[in-house]
Amino acid sequence: ENNNMNGTLPYFPRYIPRLRELDLSNQAKNGGLTGSIPAGLSNLGDLTVLDFSGNALKDDIPSDIGNFAQLKRLNLSNNHLSGIIPSELGKLVGLEIFDLSNNYLENRIPSELGNLDSAIVLLSGNGNFTNRINTDLVPLALCSLHNVDLKDNAQLCPPERNALKKFYDAAKGREWTESTLWLHEYESHCLWFGVDCGKDNNTIKLKLASNGLSGTLTKNIANLTRLEVLDLSDNDIKGKIPTEIGSLSFLHRLRLNHNFFIGNDTNFGNLKQLKLLQIHGNRLSGTVPMLNLTVHNRSSYVSDCGYPSEFKMALSCTECSMCCNSKGDCFPQEGIKKHIPGVDSYVQLSGVVLVCLIGLFGVLASTAFSCAKYHSRDMPRSSNLRPSLTRKNKINALKSIGKNSVYQFILGTSWIGWFIFLTVIAAQSTILIIFIRGSEIDLSNDQIDLVFTWYCPRDQDECTDTSDLSLIGWLAFAVMMVSHLLADIINGVKLILLSATEQNNYQTRARYFVGGMILSSIALFTLYVSTIYNYATATSNTDIVMNSVIILFVTDIDEFVYQILVVINFFGVKHMLLEEEKESFLETCPPKKENEKGGLGMSLQQQAVDYQHLVSEFRTLKTDFQQLQETVDTLHK
């Protein structure tokens, strides 16, 4: 080298057949070597170095140079070589240096040069292709090599094309259902199947759903820096979701659902523009971080945070809009806490409802008492305490609370009766609470009765409700509730209003108020429980009717218990009743025959008949007295 040689190159195999190194570089000071590179140099079978750089050689590069088996360095840079690069040069797999820079080579670079993965490949400075803006000039295989000078030229070697190639290799692209133009050596990646580009040929969408992808998801996906939509749903991709995906700051739709992703430390970074994230149908565990999605609807954030789960503990996702279970069924995570601040469950809401009912009934009783006191302000105190009015109030109270219910025991003075009353109330409340707990919308709790009625299809972004429950079912529910509970609610209110009258002493009024409040509260509470339980579990019109019948049965327990008490303990029940009820109670019992034992029973029945006769006569006298009083008043006027 550097000997100021000129002229043309001789046929070296003829003169030096065992030549190992041929370095005639940098002869340009005296014009340098000219002419063409002679063909047949490959006959120098032992040649390891061929360096003609820094001369004035021209014309095409001989294709037989690719036949050098031992060649380690090929340097033809800084000449006037033209034409195309022979594809045979791709056979020089043992090269360490491959330098064709600063010539006048043109047309496509052969893809076979991608085989030179051990060499430093230098091709820049060839104006006929490096100065042209044409992304298909440099083959993908060559751009994928680490030691290629053109790989940093974004126009000739788009970095996103390399990233997509690595994605293809990691996801076993050869097994894909559809992979048109993928890994084409010269076609733009924007023409590859499932790839959409925006301006400047930046990849903005990668949609390969249901396409047979497997393998893993490479972290190089993060090199698609302008990506907005990534849909790899319904495939067989395994491994962890790379945390590098969190650097895709423009991403607003991410669908990785129905794959085989694993991991308990899933982290999506800070995807500020994310509007949709669906990762259900995988094998993720642990906790999914908060993302603060810009759009919130039932399909915007879906994960496997429901029970039953593939794991002992389901995936924790407090921000998810929809939770799916291992069966593929889903349900919106719209817990009660999202609607009422400070209330995290239906059990807590039940306490709030009961407190509100007690307060409402207290206000009602106070208002009624104030009104009654105002209207009776001009009446003598003694007139308000007449026995006839007191007895009439007791009869009205008994009618309101029910003659065939243990609720009537609260109106009496028997401690046993009160105990039975409280026991039945406790039993009814306990049963209703069981239904309340079963209604909880806690999708991570496998102890609830909640039915997952939603379905998030593999091939669609939107989740749909598969429930067959319609408006007709809810109308049937309303009819059942009104027909069964409205009378109890009204009678309870009547009792509360009755507790405001001054004809009764304070103890009696307190019993009226408690009885009325319990009667109305149980009815209203049953309505509340029926509503939330059907919302959680009813999937058809038949379901809502059956559930309602079962829950309404709870309101009849007081009557069933009363009937049992009547059957097993006739006289014990009688002594717990009001005097006014004993009359009708005895009337309902068949009289014993005289030849039967139980003279005491006959005596009590006879006393009851006598008592009724006296009451009848008293009422007749009272009516006659009132008519006489009216006549006297008329004569006086």
UniProtKB/TrEMBL annotation:
Taxonomy of the source species: Eukaryota, Sar, Stramenopiles, Ochrophyta, Bacillariophyta
Coiled-coil blocks: none
Name of the protein in its database record: Leucine-rich repeat-containing N-terminal plant-type domain-containing protein
One Pfam family this sequence matches: LRR_1
Tagged with keyword Cytoplasm: no
Signal peptide range in chain numbering: none
Spans through the membrane: 346-372, 409-436, 471-491, 512-536, 548-572
Keywords: Leucine-rich repeat, Membrane, Repeat, Transmembrane, Transmembrane helix
Species name: Proboscia inermis
PROSITE patterns: LRR
Top-rank lineage group of the source organism: Eukaryota
